[in-house]
Amino acid sequence: xxxxxxxxxxxxxxxxxxxxxxxxxxxxxxxxxxxxxxxxxxxxxxxxxxxxxxxxxxxxxxxxxxxxxxxxxxxxxxxxxxxxxxxxxxxxxxxxxxxxxxxxxxxxxxxxxxxxxxxxxxxxxxxxxxxxxxxxxxxxxxxxxxxxxxxxxxxxxxxxxxxxxxxxxxxxxxxxxxxxxxxxxxxxxxxxxxxxxxxxxxxxxxxxxxxxxxxxxxxxxxxxxxxxxxxxxxxxxxxxxxxxxxxxxxxxxxxxxxxxxxxxxxxxxxxxxxxxxxxxxxxxxxxxxxxxxxxxxxxxxxxxxxxxxxxxxxxxxxxxxxxxxxxxxxxxxxxxxxxxxxxxxxxxxxxxxxxxxxxxxxxxxxxxxxxxxxxxxxxxxxxxxxxxxxxxxxxxxxxxxxxxxxxxxxxxxxxxxxxxxxxxxxxxxxxxx
Length: 433
Ligand code: DLL
Hints:
With 433 residues, this protein is an alpha/beta fold. It contains 12 helices and 21 strands. A 9-stranded mixed β-sheet has the order 4-3-5-6-7-8-9-14-13. Strands 10-11-12-15 form a 4-stranded antiparallel β-sheet.
Protein backbone atom coordinates (compact mmCIF):
# COMPACT_ATOMS: atom_id res chain seq x y z
CA UNK A 1 0.00 0.00 0.00
CA UNK A 2 1.39 3.35 -0.96
CA UNK A 3 -0.66 5.89 0.89
CA UNK A 4 1.49 8.86 1.79
CA UNK A 5 -0.99 10.06 4.37
CA UNK A 6 0.98 13.06 5.55
CA UNK A 7 0.90 14.37 1.97
CA UNK A 8 -2.40 13.07 0.62
CA UNK A 9 -4.49 14.42 3.47
CA UNK A 10 -2.58 17.61 4.26
CA UNK A 11 -4.65 20.70 4.95
CA UNK A 12 -4.42 23.17 2.04
CA UNK A 13 -2.02 25.54 3.81
CA UNK A 14 0.48 22.76 4.51
CA UNK A 15 0.39 21.56 0.95
CA UNK A 16 0.72 25.07 -0.43
CA UNK A 17 3.79 25.79 1.63
CA UNK A 18 5.45 22.64 0.25
CA UNK A 19 4.45 23.69 -3.26
CA UNK A 20 5.85 27.18 -2.81
CA UNK A 21 9.18 25.96 -1.47
CA UNK A 22 9.51 23.53 -4.37
CA UNK A 23 8.44 26.12 -6.93
CA UNK A 24 11.04 28.61 -5.72
CA UNK A 25 13.78 25.98 -5.92
CA UNK A 26 12.61 24.97 -9.39
CA UNK A 27 12.61 28.50 -10.74
CA UNK A 28 16.11 29.17 -9.43
CA UNK A 29 17.29 25.92 -10.98
CA UNK A 30 15.87 26.44 -14.47
CA UNK A 31 17.02 30.07 -14.49
CA UNK A 32 20.56 29.02 -13.67
CA UNK A 33 20.72 25.90 -15.81
CA UNK A 34 18.45 26.11 -18.84
CA UNK A 35 19.28 28.93 -21.22
CA UNK A 36 15.88 29.12 -22.98
CA UNK A 37 14.15 29.53 -19.60
CA UNK A 38 16.51 32.29 -18.58
CA UNK A 39 15.96 34.06 -21.91
CA UNK A 40 12.18 33.88 -21.58
CA UNK A 41 12.20 35.04 -17.96
CA UNK A 42 14.56 37.89 -18.79
CA UNK A 43 12.30 38.94 -21.65
CA UNK A 44 9.31 38.90 -19.29
CA UNK A 45 11.28 40.90 -16.71
CA UNK A 46 10.95 38.29 -13.98
CA UNK A 47 13.74 37.02 -11.74
CA UNK A 48 13.70 33.88 -9.58
CA UNK A 49 13.51 35.97 -6.39
CA UNK A 50 10.26 37.55 -7.62
CA UNK A 51 8.42 34.31 -6.83
CA UNK A 52 7.41 34.98 -3.23
CA UNK A 53 3.98 33.35 -3.17
CA UNK A 54 2.11 30.77 -5.22
CA UNK A 55 0.14 33.62 -6.76
CA UNK A 56 3.42 34.85 -8.28
CA UNK A 57 3.34 31.78 -10.52
CA UNK A 58 1.41 33.86 -13.01
CA UNK A 59 4.42 36.12 -13.52
CA UNK A 60 6.27 33.24 -15.17
CA UNK A 61 6.08 32.71 -18.94
CA UNK A 62 4.25 29.67 -20.31
CA UNK A 63 6.08 26.81 -21.96
CA UNK A 64 4.54 25.29 -25.10
CA UNK A 65 5.09 22.42 -27.47
CA UNK A 66 6.82 24.92 -29.78
CA UNK A 67 9.46 25.53 -27.11
CA UNK A 68 10.03 21.79 -26.99
CA UNK A 69 10.33 21.62 -30.75
CA UNK A 70 12.68 24.60 -30.93
CA UNK A 71 14.97 22.94 -28.42
CA UNK A 72 14.69 19.43 -29.87
CA UNK A 73 15.89 16.98 -28.69
CA UNK A 74 17.62 17.77 -25.38
CA UNK A 75 17.83 21.58 -25.23
CA UNK A 76 15.48 21.97 -22.25
CA UNK A 77 17.17 19.36 -20.10
CA UNK A 78 18.34 20.82 -16.80
CA UNK A 79 20.95 18.22 -15.89
CA UNK A 80 24.07 17.06 -17.74
CA UNK A 81 23.33 14.21 -20.18
CA UNK A 82 25.50 11.87 -18.12
CA UNK A 83 22.95 12.10 -15.30
CA UNK A 84 20.07 11.20 -17.63
CA UNK A 85 19.43 7.47 -17.37
CA UNK A 86 16.34 7.17 -19.57
CA UNK A 87 14.59 8.99 -22.40
CA UNK A 88 11.07 8.56 -23.74
CA UNK A 89 9.34 10.23 -26.67
CA UNK A 90 5.91 10.85 -28.08
CA UNK A 91 4.98 12.09 -31.51
CA UNK A 92 4.64 15.81 -32.07
CA UNK A 93 3.95 18.33 -34.79
CA UNK A 94 5.73 18.09 -38.16
CA UNK A 95 7.39 14.82 -37.38
CA UNK A 96 9.67 15.87 -34.56
CA UNK A 97 8.84 13.89 -31.51
CA UNK A 98 8.67 15.29 -28.01
CA UNK A 99 11.67 13.95 -26.14
CA UNK A 100 11.75 13.72 -22.37
CA UNK A 101 14.50 12.61 -19.98
CA UNK A 102 14.81 11.22 -16.47
CA UNK A 103 17.57 11.05 -13.87
CA UNK A 104 17.72 8.17 -11.40
CA UNK A 105 15.75 10.20 -8.78
CA UNK A 106 13.21 11.09 -11.53
CA UNK A 107 12.64 7.40 -12.25
CA UNK A 108 12.18 6.81 -8.51
CA UNK A 109 9.76 9.73 -8.27
CA UNK A 110 7.80 8.36 -11.23
CA UNK A 111 7.57 4.94 -9.59
CA UNK A 112 6.34 6.61 -6.39
CA UNK A 113 3.63 8.73 -8.04
CA UNK A 114 2.51 5.77 -10.11
CA UNK A 115 2.38 3.58 -6.99
CA UNK A 116 0.30 6.22 -5.23
CA UNK A 117 -2.07 6.21 -8.22
CA UNK A 118 -2.38 2.44 -8.15
CA UNK A 119 -3.19 2.68 -4.45
CA UNK A 120 -6.05 5.04 -5.27
CA UNK A 121 -7.54 2.19 -7.31
CA UNK A 122 -7.19 -0.17 -4.38
CA UNK A 123 -4.21 -2.06 -5.81
CA UNK A 124 -2.03 -3.68 -3.14
CA UNK A 125 0.99 -5.94 -2.75
CA UNK A 126 -1.00 -9.09 -3.35
CA UNK A 127 -2.29 -8.07 -6.76
CA UNK A 128 -1.38 -9.62 -10.09
CA UNK A 129 -1.16 -6.64 -12.45
CA UNK A 130 -1.59 -7.19 -16.17
CA UNK A 131 0.19 -4.24 -17.79
CA UNK A 132 -1.02 -3.94 -21.38
CA UNK A 133 0.26 -0.40 -21.95
CA UNK A 134 2.85 -0.40 -24.73
CA UNK A 135 6.48 -0.80 -23.68
CA UNK A 136 8.98 1.32 -25.58
CA UNK A 137 9.35 5.02 -26.24
CA UNK A 138 5.74 5.49 -25.10
CA UNK A 139 5.70 6.26 -21.37
CA UNK A 140 2.71 4.03 -20.58
CA UNK A 141 4.33 0.59 -20.32
CA UNK A 142 7.54 1.31 -18.44
CA UNK A 143 6.01 4.10 -16.35
CA UNK A 144 3.31 1.83 -14.98
CA UNK A 145 5.76 -1.06 -14.69
CA UNK A 146 8.06 0.66 -12.20
CA UNK A 147 5.10 1.83 -10.13
CA UNK A 148 3.69 -1.69 -9.89
CA UNK A 149 7.06 -2.99 -8.74
CA UNK A 150 7.50 -0.15 -6.24
CA UNK A 151 4.15 -1.11 -4.75
CA UNK A 152 5.31 -4.69 -4.41
CA UNK A 153 2.53 -6.11 -6.56
CA UNK A 154 3.34 -8.63 -9.29
CA UNK A 155 3.70 -7.14 -12.74
CA UNK A 156 2.93 -9.03 -15.93
CA UNK A 157 4.76 -6.92 -18.57
CA UNK A 158 2.58 -8.08 -21.43
CA UNK A 159 2.58 -4.78 -23.43
CA UNK A 160 0.06 -4.26 -26.25
CA UNK A 161 -1.03 -6.66 -28.98
CA UNK A 162 -1.79 -10.38 -29.41
CA UNK A 163 -5.10 -10.12 -27.60
CA UNK A 164 -5.86 -13.84 -27.73
CA UNK A 165 -2.71 -14.63 -25.81
CA UNK A 166 -3.46 -11.84 -23.35
CA UNK A 167 -6.79 -13.45 -22.55
CA UNK A 168 -5.10 -16.79 -21.87
CA UNK A 169 -2.56 -15.07 -19.63
CA UNK A 170 -5.25 -13.19 -17.72
CA UNK A 171 -7.11 -16.42 -17.09
CA UNK A 172 -4.15 -18.69 -16.33
CA UNK A 173 -2.13 -16.22 -14.23
CA UNK A 174 -5.17 -14.95 -12.38
CA UNK A 175 -4.67 -11.26 -13.24
CA UNK A 176 -6.58 -9.11 -10.77
CA UNK A 177 -5.80 -5.67 -12.24
CA UNK A 178 -5.77 -4.62 -15.90
CA UNK A 179 -3.81 -1.62 -17.13
CA UNK A 180 -4.58 -0.61 -20.72
CA UNK A 181 -6.07 2.10 -22.87
CA UNK A 182 -9.87 1.99 -22.63
CA UNK A 183 -10.17 1.01 -26.29
CA UNK A 184 -7.77 -1.87 -25.81
CA UNK A 185 -9.79 -3.05 -22.82
CA UNK A 186 -12.76 -3.39 -25.17
CA UNK A 187 -10.59 -5.27 -27.62
CA UNK A 188 -9.67 -7.71 -24.91
CA UNK A 189 -13.36 -8.13 -24.13
CA UNK A 190 -13.96 -9.07 -27.78
CA UNK A 191 -11.02 -11.46 -27.74
CA UNK A 192 -12.53 -13.08 -24.65
CA UNK A 193 -15.84 -13.54 -26.43
CA UNK A 194 -14.03 -15.05 -29.44
CA UNK A 195 -12.15 -17.44 -27.20
CA UNK A 196 -15.28 -18.34 -25.26
CA UNK A 197 -13.83 -17.01 -22.02
CA UNK A 198 -16.32 -15.32 -19.70
CA UNK A 199 -15.51 -12.60 -17.19
CA UNK A 200 -16.58 -15.05 -14.47
CA UNK A 201 -13.55 -17.19 -15.30
CA UNK A 202 -11.20 -14.28 -14.61
CA UNK A 203 -10.11 -12.84 -11.29
CA UNK A 204 -10.04 -9.33 -12.72
CA UNK A 205 -11.29 -6.75 -10.23
CA UNK A 206 -10.28 -3.33 -11.48
CA UNK A 207 -9.14 -1.69 -14.71
CA UNK A 208 -6.96 1.43 -14.86
CA UNK A 209 -7.48 3.12 -18.18
CA UNK A 210 -6.10 6.27 -19.76
CA UNK A 211 -3.82 7.74 -22.44
CA UNK A 212 -6.85 8.68 -24.58
CA UNK A 213 -10.23 10.31 -24.01
CA UNK A 214 -13.11 8.03 -23.05
CA UNK A 215 -16.67 8.70 -22.07
CA UNK A 216 -18.90 7.50 -19.25
CA UNK A 217 -20.66 5.26 -21.78
CA UNK A 218 -17.42 3.61 -22.61
CA UNK A 219 -16.69 3.15 -18.93
CA UNK A 220 -19.98 1.33 -18.48
CA UNK A 221 -19.22 -0.91 -21.42
CA UNK A 222 -15.75 -1.81 -20.12
CA UNK A 223 -17.15 -2.48 -16.64
CA UNK A 224 -19.98 -4.64 -17.94
CA UNK A 225 -17.97 -6.65 -20.44
CA UNK A 226 -15.02 -7.32 -18.15
CA UNK A 227 -16.94 -7.47 -14.89
CA UNK A 228 -14.66 -4.91 -13.27
CA UNK A 229 -14.55 -1.43 -11.81
CA UNK A 230 -12.92 0.85 -14.41
CA UNK A 231 -11.06 4.01 -13.33
CA UNK A 232 -9.39 6.83 -15.18
CA UNK A 233 -5.69 7.68 -15.14
CA UNK A 234 -4.22 10.80 -16.71
CA UNK A 235 -0.72 11.80 -17.64
CA UNK A 236 1.48 13.11 -20.39
CA UNK A 237 5.08 12.42 -21.33
CA UNK A 238 6.16 16.02 -20.85
CA UNK A 239 5.05 16.11 -17.22
CA UNK A 240 6.28 12.58 -16.36
CA UNK A 241 4.06 10.05 -18.18
CA UNK A 242 1.21 8.17 -16.49
CA UNK A 243 0.88 9.14 -12.82
CA UNK A 244 -0.04 12.83 -12.97
CA UNK A 245 -3.64 12.33 -11.83
CA UNK A 246 -5.81 9.39 -10.93
CA UNK A 247 -9.41 8.67 -10.07
CA UNK A 248 -9.81 6.92 -6.73
CA UNK A 249 -12.50 4.30 -6.28
CA UNK A 250 -14.45 6.65 -4.02
CA UNK A 251 -14.42 9.66 -6.30
CA UNK A 252 -17.78 10.83 -7.51
CA UNK A 253 -16.06 13.14 -9.93
CA UNK A 254 -12.62 13.50 -11.44
CA UNK A 255 -9.07 12.52 -10.70
CA UNK A 256 -6.78 13.49 -7.83
CA UNK A 257 -3.75 15.39 -9.05
CA UNK A 258 -0.49 14.52 -7.29
CA UNK A 259 -0.06 18.20 -6.69
CA UNK A 260 2.87 17.92 -4.32
CA UNK A 261 4.75 17.17 -7.57
CA UNK A 262 2.65 18.62 -10.37
CA UNK A 263 1.24 22.07 -9.79
CA UNK A 264 -1.93 22.55 -11.85
CA UNK A 265 -3.60 25.66 -13.27
CA UNK A 266 -6.50 26.08 -15.65
CA UNK A 267 -6.20 29.03 -18.03
CA UNK A 268 -8.31 30.63 -20.71
CA UNK A 269 -6.76 29.30 -23.95
CA UNK A 270 -7.46 32.60 -25.75
CA UNK A 271 -6.46 35.26 -23.23
CA UNK A 272 -4.13 32.97 -21.25
CA UNK A 273 -5.52 34.41 -18.03
CA UNK A 274 -5.64 31.91 -15.15
CA UNK A 275 -9.21 30.86 -14.32
CA UNK A 276 -10.72 30.27 -10.89
CA UNK A 277 -11.48 26.74 -9.66
CA UNK A 278 -14.50 25.24 -11.34
CA UNK A 279 -14.11 27.00 -14.67
CA UNK A 280 -13.35 25.08 -17.84
CA UNK A 281 -10.15 25.86 -19.71
CA UNK A 282 -6.74 24.58 -20.71
CA UNK A 283 -4.76 22.60 -18.16
CA UNK A 284 -1.29 23.91 -17.36
CA UNK A 285 1.25 22.08 -15.24
CA UNK A 286 4.49 23.01 -13.51
CA UNK A 287 6.67 20.11 -12.41
CA UNK A 288 7.85 20.76 -8.86
CA UNK A 289 10.22 17.87 -8.29
CA UNK A 290 11.55 16.56 -11.58
CA UNK A 291 15.29 17.00 -12.27
CA UNK A 292 16.23 16.19 -15.87
CA UNK A 293 13.27 17.70 -17.66
CA UNK A 294 11.45 20.22 -15.48
CA UNK A 295 8.66 22.24 -17.04
CA UNK A 296 7.36 25.62 -15.96
CA UNK A 297 3.72 26.36 -16.78
CA UNK A 298 3.46 23.83 -19.57
CA UNK A 299 0.34 24.25 -21.68
CA UNK A 300 -1.08 20.77 -22.19
CA UNK A 301 -3.86 21.73 -24.65
CA UNK A 302 -6.10 19.38 -22.66
CA UNK A 303 -9.44 20.79 -21.58
CA UNK A 304 -10.59 20.26 -18.01
CA UNK A 305 -11.43 22.05 -14.76
CA UNK A 306 -10.31 21.82 -11.17
CA UNK A 307 -12.31 21.43 -8.00
CA UNK A 308 -11.30 21.43 -4.38
CA UNK A 309 -14.32 19.80 -2.75
CA UNK A 310 -13.23 17.06 -0.38
CA UNK A 311 -13.40 13.48 -1.61
CA UNK A 312 -14.93 10.56 0.28
CA UNK A 313 -11.53 8.84 0.32
CA UNK A 314 -10.11 11.50 2.63
CA UNK A 315 -7.53 12.85 0.23
CA UNK A 316 -7.28 16.61 0.12
CA UNK A 317 -5.52 16.62 -3.27
CA UNK A 318 -7.28 18.77 -5.81
CA UNK A 319 -9.28 16.94 -8.48
CA UNK A 320 -9.43 17.48 -12.25
CA UNK A 321 -12.42 16.61 -14.35
CA UNK A 322 -12.19 13.88 -16.98
CA UNK A 323 -10.44 15.31 -20.04
CA UNK A 324 -13.03 15.67 -22.75
CA UNK A 325 -11.18 17.44 -25.51
CA UNK A 326 -8.22 19.48 -26.62
CA UNK A 327 -7.69 23.04 -27.73
CA UNK A 328 -5.70 21.86 -30.75
CA UNK A 329 -6.49 19.33 -33.43
CA UNK A 330 -4.47 16.46 -32.02
CA UNK A 331 -6.14 13.10 -32.56
CA UNK A 332 -5.28 9.99 -30.63
CA UNK A 333 -5.44 7.04 -32.99
CA UNK A 334 -4.89 3.67 -31.35
CA UNK A 335 -2.91 5.39 -28.64
CA UNK A 336 -0.68 7.33 -31.02
CA UNK A 337 -0.85 11.11 -30.95
CA UNK A 338 -1.50 12.35 -34.48
CA UNK A 339 -1.62 15.91 -35.76
CA UNK A 340 -3.30 16.58 -39.12
CA UNK A 341 -0.29 18.78 -39.93
CA UNK A 342 1.90 15.67 -39.95
CA UNK A 343 -0.31 14.07 -42.58
CA UNK A 344 -0.19 17.30 -44.54
CA UNK A 345 3.58 17.38 -44.29
CA UNK A 346 3.78 13.91 -45.85
CA UNK A 347 1.37 14.76 -48.65
CA UNK A 348 3.17 17.97 -49.48
CA UNK A 349 6.34 16.00 -50.16
CA UNK A 350 4.73 13.82 -52.82
CA UNK A 351 4.46 14.81 -56.50
CA UNK A 352 1.08 14.57 -58.16
CA UNK A 353 -0.82 15.19 -54.92
CA UNK A 354 -2.82 18.36 -54.37
CA UNK A 355 -2.85 20.20 -51.04
CA UNK A 356 -6.46 19.15 -50.50
CA UNK A 357 -7.13 16.28 -48.18
CA UNK A 358 -9.49 15.05 -45.57
CA UNK A 359 -8.92 12.79 -42.61
CA UNK A 360 -11.71 10.59 -41.44
CA UNK A 361 -11.55 8.62 -38.22
CA UNK A 362 -13.98 5.82 -37.57
CA UNK A 363 -14.14 2.87 -35.27
CA UNK A 364 -14.28 -0.69 -36.53
CA UNK A 365 -15.33 -2.68 -33.48
CA UNK A 366 -12.98 -1.20 -30.90
CA UNK A 367 -10.24 -0.32 -33.29
CA UNK A 368 -9.68 3.22 -34.54
CA UNK A 369 -9.39 3.44 -38.32
CA UNK A 370 -7.88 6.48 -39.99
CA UNK A 371 -8.67 7.10 -43.65
CA UNK A 372 -7.04 9.82 -45.68
CA UNK A 373 -8.80 11.14 -48.79
CA UNK A 374 -6.32 12.81 -51.09
CA UNK A 375 -6.96 14.81 -54.22
CA UNK A 376 -4.63 14.06 -57.11
CA UNK A 377 -3.68 16.31 -60.01
CA UNK A 378 -5.42 16.02 -63.41
CA UNK A 379 -2.56 14.31 -65.20
CA UNK A 380 -2.09 11.70 -62.49
CA UNK A 381 -5.80 11.04 -62.33
CA UNK A 382 -5.96 10.11 -66.01
CA UNK A 383 -2.98 7.80 -65.60
CA UNK A 384 -3.28 4.08 -65.62
CA UNK A 385 -4.48 2.21 -62.55
CA UNK A 386 -1.03 0.85 -61.77
CA UNK A 387 0.32 4.36 -61.29
CA UNK A 388 -2.54 5.26 -58.97
CA UNK A 389 -2.06 2.11 -56.94
CA UNK A 390 1.61 2.86 -56.57
CA UNK A 391 0.84 6.37 -55.40
CA UNK A 392 -1.69 5.09 -52.87
CA UNK A 393 0.84 2.68 -51.43
CA UNK A 394 3.54 5.32 -51.28
CA UNK A 395 1.32 7.69 -49.29
CA UNK A 396 0.37 4.86 -46.96
CA UNK A 397 4.00 3.89 -46.33
CA UNK A 398 5.14 7.46 -45.77
CA UNK A 399 2.35 8.17 -43.32
CA UNK A 400 3.15 4.95 -41.49
CA UNK A 401 6.85 5.92 -41.36
CA UNK A 402 6.07 9.37 -40.07
CA UNK A 403 3.32 8.59 -37.59
CA UNK A 404 3.58 4.92 -36.86
CA UNK A 405 -0.07 4.51 -37.79
CA UNK A 406 -1.41 2.40 -40.64
CA UNK A 407 -4.13 4.25 -42.50
CA UNK A 408 -6.39 3.73 -45.47
CA UNK A 409 -5.66 6.00 -48.41
CA UNK A 410 -8.19 6.88 -51.06
CA UNK A 411 -7.26 8.97 -54.07
CA UNK A 412 -10.07 11.19 -55.26
CA UNK A 413 -10.73 13.23 -58.39
CA UNK A 414 -9.35 16.73 -58.82
CA UNK A 415 -11.60 19.36 -57.17
CA UNK A 416 -13.76 16.80 -55.40
CA UNK A 417 -12.82 17.78 -51.86
CA UNK A 418 -14.88 20.67 -50.64
CA UNK A 419 -12.96 23.93 -50.42
CA UNK A 420 -13.22 25.74 -47.15
CA UNK A 421 -14.53 29.23 -46.70
CA UNK A 422 -12.71 29.89 -43.48
CA UNK A 423 -10.85 27.48 -41.31
CA UNK A 424 -10.40 24.24 -43.21
CA UNK A 425 -12.37 21.40 -41.74
CA UNK A 426 -9.89 18.64 -42.44
CA UNK A 427 -10.87 16.12 -39.83
CA UNK A 428 -14.09 14.23 -39.39
CA UNK A 429 -14.06 12.17 -36.26
CA UNK A 430 -16.91 9.70 -36.47
CA UNK A 431 -15.85 7.64 -33.46
CA UNK A 432 -18.66 7.46 -31.00
CA UNK A 433 -16.91 7.34 -27.67
O1 DLL B 1 -0.57 9.01 -22.82
C1 DLL B 1 0.68 8.94 -20.77
C2 DLL B 1 -0.25 7.92 -20.21
C3 DLL B 1 0.02 6.58 -20.36
C4 DLL B 1 -1.38 8.31 -19.50
C5 DLL B 1 -0.82 5.64 -19.83
C6 DLL B 1 -2.22 7.39 -18.95
C7 DLL B 1 -1.95 6.04 -19.11
P1 DLL B 1 1.35 10.94 -24.13
O2 DLL B 1 1.55 9.86 -25.10
O3 DLL B 1 2.38 12.01 -24.03
O4 DLL B 1 1.29 10.34 -22.66
O5 DLL B 1 -0.07 11.58 -24.42
C8 DLL B 1 -0.58 12.57 -23.56
O6 DLL B 1 -2.87 11.90 -23.99
O7 DLL B 1 -2.12 15.30 -23.26
C9 DLL B 1 -4.06 13.81 -23.32
O8 DLL B 1 -4.44 14.51 -24.49
C10 DLL B 1 -4.16 12.32 -23.57
N1 DLL B 1 -4.55 11.60 -22.35
C11 DLL B 1 -3.75 10.97 -21.46
N2 DLL B 1 -4.50 10.43 -20.46
C12 DLL B 1 -5.80 10.74 -20.72
C13 DLL B 1 -7.05 10.48 -20.07
C14 DLL B 1 0.38 9.41 -22.19
N3 DLL B 1 -7.14 9.75 -18.95
C15 DLL B 1 -1.97 13.01 -23.99
N4 DLL B 1 -8.17 11.00 -20.64
C16 DLL B 1 -2.58 14.00 -23.03
C17 DLL B 1 -8.12 11.74 -21.78
C18 DLL B 1 -5.82 11.51 -21.92
N5 DLL B 1 -6.97 11.99 -22.43
